[in-house]
Design brief:
Layout: H1 19-30, E1 53-63, E2 68-70, H2 73-78, H3 81-90, E3 94-96, E4 107-112, E5 121-126, E6 129-134, H4 137-150, E7 152-153, E8 159-168, E9 174-180, H5 188-200, E10 205-209, E11 211-212, E12 215-216, H6 225-228, E13 232-233, E14 237-238, E15 247-248, E16 253-254, H7 259-271, E17 275-282, H8 287-292, H9 320-336, E18 341-345, H10 352-355, H11 358-367, H12 373-389, E19 393-397, E20 410-413, H13 418-425, E21 430-432, H14 460-464, H15 475-478, E22 481-486, H16 496-503, H17 506-515, H18 523-539, E23 552-557, E24 563-568, E25 574-580, E26 583-587, E27 592-594, E28 598-606, E29 618-625, E30 635-637, E31 657-658, E32 670-672, E33 677-695, E34 709-715, E35 722-727, H19 729-733, E36 738-756, E37 760-763, E38 768-771, E39 774-776, E40 779-781
Parallel strand pairs: 2-3, 2-4, 4-6, 9-10, 9-22, 10-17, 17-18, 18-19, 19-20, 20-21, 21-22
Antiparallel strand pairs: 1-8, 5-6, 5-8, 7-8, 11-12, 13-16, 14-15, 23-24, 24-27, 25-26, 25-28, 28-29, 29-31, 30-33, 32-39, 33-36, 33-40, 34-35, 34-36, 37-38
Keywords: Glycosidase, Hydrolase, Membrane, Transmembrane, Transmembrane helix
Organism: Sinobacterium norvegicum
Pfam family, one: Fn3_assoc
């Protein structure tokens, strides 16, 4: 990122300990190297993230117990005894003073260079040894991480480092990962393991999402019921929270971190140059808080820690008693986290309770607030004032921009890049974390064997393409982009292994997107370097998704009535093989064009496999397409005119792709509210037709609501309509995924498809029965 606004001497987000102490600690850590030998290409860089510059030589420097660690005596005098013993006894390095006991070879020399930027470092390795320079603890720590990647074991007693010259520094100063521990709780050991993972990727911010509707996870001594009551829920929804007729596991879930545990985690993170940013979600996402202390809600009612996921009406009431409670919580939280930031959430706030609250109406009058949404801005301002008392800056999700928030508020732009652009133009510091690229709870494969996720599709290559600085910003505006982060919401990640599979290797792609200069980024080169980096993670028993080995299918309907199918894969080391009902197992080489209904199956196979059909297959991608008489014809939606699909692929419900046998994705289905669907298709001319078919349920991971009545009508002028086929609710309930309506062949220009939606169900979010949405797949006409 551009650094002219803050200046070269500015520290990273972490409060550094003594430079000299950490210099020696870095040197101590240097000898902790991978336990397995990994072959290294001499002529190519293997580092992730890609460094600013690197030149590799032809040889290796081998260091062992006879290697001198050149260090200052004053540093050794304050080195903790445990560290001294670990360094001198276990690894047996000889410590020498460079100014009094000259060493000319077989050495590791560490020097402080105050002219270097805060997180910059340089490494030079030749026949004489290794020379490391940096200006801060952060720089030395990242030099250590790079040497760990580059080093190989040559024997039990020696470690080899290739001859090289390397300079490096990050592009952005905020390089983070978020972890939500409210939806599912993970113990302290896993939090530390997660921090280890950040450190290996040269990330420096851990955003710890500690409170939400499903559980309050941080001990607040002044309000003990926040954890004793708010830290536990009765059970958890099974399947997707939006499924029809949801059911539950009946198993209580909960837990929280004591203040001592939090101090322990923060101290652990500081050793790795990681700042921990706590998130206390306010004023919405507070069901857990309100079950513990209902007096801080606007309505007198029974609040409950939520057992489903979503956006709930429970919200704090903006009274002075509430603000005093928030002040106390902020004071305790501020005392636990030495970093400069406090994240206060501020997203997805529903205003229903404020609308029905006399105190809120009075507040609006007193504060001259124009609407209910401005109460949210009032809340954010009050919390910012409170946070400032305890030397904290606040961060809010981009919804806080809906209120008149102070420029001192840092904006975390999640709904897309637009919020970040608006914020940067207004002078707010910005952290880019758009749902489009860095939400790691999204699917990373559409293969049928992929684990359930919330929705969305974010493959590895898309994460790597993430560009944090929008082109529409001026240089001055771009200077407000602090950096970015990946977000891990855990509604559908109940285990530690599931979290690791969700983030790896997408986190690795994000690390390079945030660290490396744009000119040093290359997807092909990253793909070459990735296997060696992931091998290091596997050596440490991290779980890594194989989604990049699985192909993804896409389609394009053509105006000549054919459909072109394409397959892609994120691994250059794997080929795609496909088959259909009419063809055998074939290697995919180019897009396939079909003129009739076709179901294409695909899988990934290692390029080196001698017998691909018998080799290990990665994934099972499936896509069904069907050319038909309504394909790409104009459609008007009488009740929902916005449901028009992607114009580049034809209108959504007549684009030729069937989605009932795929993992549910919102963008592949038309969504219709209680008015139902009323779609008129213009066939262009009088056309003989006899059947219409539409899908209403997904093949994997979702149970969607069905239409309650389907009717087909035809017309030649859109004035007089003739009903020709009907299915009632009982008939639809007996069907599985697809409804087909048939009639004696008739000629017509316009066909009208009506799908009624009388579904009403209890909404855990709104705490009442509400109309539910139906989703419709392709309208196939023959």
């Amino acid at each position: 990122m551009k650094t002219h606004r803050r200046g070269k001497a500015e520290k990273s987000p972490v409060q550094h300990v003594s430079q000299l102490i950490v210099t020696l600690m870095f040197a101590m850590l240097l000898v902790y190297l991978p336990t397995k030998t990994i072959a290294m290409t001499h002529s190519n860089n293997t580092l992730i993230p890609a460094p600013s510059t690197i030149t590799l030589g032809d040889g290796f420097f081998h260091f062992n117990s006879q290697t001198a660690l050149v260090a200052n005596t004053d540093v050794l005098a304050v080195l903790p005894q445990e560290v001294r013993e670990w360094l001198l006894v276990k690894h047996g390095l000889l410590l020498r003073q460079s100014q009094h006991d000259a060493v000319s070879d077989n050495m590791i020399a560490v020097a402080i260079d105050q002219s270097m930027a805060a997180e910059a470092y340089s490494i030079r390795v030749n026949e004489s040894g290794a020379y490391i320079k940096a200006s801060t603890a952060a720089g030395f720590y990242y030099a250590y991480q790079s040497l760990r990647q580059l080093s190989v074991n040559s024997s039990e007693q020696t470690v080899a480092v290739p001859f090289l010259s390397l300079t490096d520094q990050p592009r952005y100063r905020w390089r983070g990962m978020m972890l939500d521990v409210s939806r599912h709780f993970y113990d302290v050991e896993f939090i530390k393991r997660y921090l280890d993972l950040l450190a290996l990727h040269k990330m420096n911010v851990f955003h710890w999402h500690l409170t939400d509707d499903q559980g309050w996870r941080i001990e607040i001594k002044a309000y003990p019921k926040l954890t004793s009551i708010g830290g536990f829920r009765d059970q958890t929804v099974v399947g997707h929270t939006s499924d029809r007729n949801p059911h539950y596991d009946g198993i209580p879930h909960g837990g929280f971190y004591t203040q001592q545990q939090i101090r322990d985690v923060v101290a652990y993170a500081e050793q790795k140059n990681i700042m921990v940013v706590p998130e206390i979600d306010l004023p919405g996402h507070t069901s857990a808080l309100l079950e513990a202390y209902p007096e801080f809600g606007c309505l007198k009612k029974d609040y409950k820690v939520q057992t489903r996921f979503g956006i709930f009406v429970d919200v704090l009431c903006p009274t002075e008693a509430t603000m005093a409670m928030v002040d106390t919580i902020v004071e305790e939280v501020a005392g636990l986290f030495p970093g400069e930031y406090l994240h206060i959430g501020g997203d997805e706030v529903k205003t229903d309770h404020w609308r029905d609250c006399p105190a809120c109406q009075q507040l609006m009058q007193d504060e001259k607030l124009a609407n209910l949404r401005q109460i949210q801005g009032y809340f954010v301002k009050r919390i910012a004032i409170t946070a400032a008392k305890y030397d904290k800056k606040i961060i809010g999700w981009d919804e806080v921009l809906e209120g008149d928030v102070d420029r001192s508020t840092t904006i975390m732009s999640w709904q897309g890049m637009a919020g970040g652009i608006t914020a940067a133009k207004a002078g707010h510091d910005v952290i880019m974390t758009p749902v489009s690229h860095v939400y790691f709870d999204f699917y990373q494969s559409t293969s049928l064997d992929t684990p359930q996720a919330i929705h969305g599709y974010t493959p590895l290559s898309k994460v790597y393409q993430f560009d944090l600085t929008p082109a529409e910003l001026t240089d001055e505006e771009a200077s407000f982009i602090l950096g970015g982060q990946g977000n891990v919401w855990t509604e559908y990640l109940p285990t530690e292994e599931a979290v690791e599979l969700a983030v790896l290797p997408r986190m690795t792609a994000l690390a390079e997107a945030m660290w490396s200069q744009a000119e040093n980024k290359s997807w092909d080169d990253f793909s070459r370097r990735l296997p060696r980096f992931l091998q290091r993670l596997e050596n440490r028993k991290y779980h890594i998704s194989q989604a990049r080995f699985k192909p993804a299918a896409s389609m394009q309907a053509n105006m000549d009535g054919t459909i072109t199918l394409s397959l892609s894969i994120d691994s250059p080391h794997h080929d795609i093989y496909y088959w259909t009902d009419d063809s055998g197992f074939k290697r995919y080489q180019q897009p396939i064009t079909v003129s009739e209904k076709t179901t294409l199956h695909a899988t990934g196979v290692d390029k080196n496999a001698r017998h691909p059909e018998e080799a290990k297959h990665y994934g099972h991608e499936i896509i069904t397409v069907e050319p038909h008489k309504a394909m790409l014809k104009p459609v008007s939606y009488l009740h929902n005119p916005e449901v028009t699909g992607n114009p580049l692929e034809g209108q959504l419900l007549v684009n030729g792709m069937l989605s009932t046998d795929r993992i549910f994705q919102y963008h592949e289905w038309g969504g219709f509210d209680s008015k139902g669907m009323d779609a008129v298709i213009d066939l262009g001319q009088s056309t003989l037709i006899s059947t219409a078919r539409l899908g209403f349920d997904a093949g994997s991971h979702r149970r969607l609501y069905k239409p309650t009545n389907i009717e087909i009508l035809i017309s030649d002028d859109q004035q007089q309509w003739q009903s020709i086929a009907v299915l009632d609710q009982a008939e639809i309930d007996a069907l599985d995924k697809v409804a087909t309506l048939s009639w004696d062949a008739l000629k017509t220009r316009y066909i009208r498809v009506r799908a009624e939606n009388d579904n009403i169900d209890f909404s855990a979010e709104d705490k009442r029965e509400i109309p539910m949405t139906i989703h419709i797949d392709e309208i196939v006409v023959h």
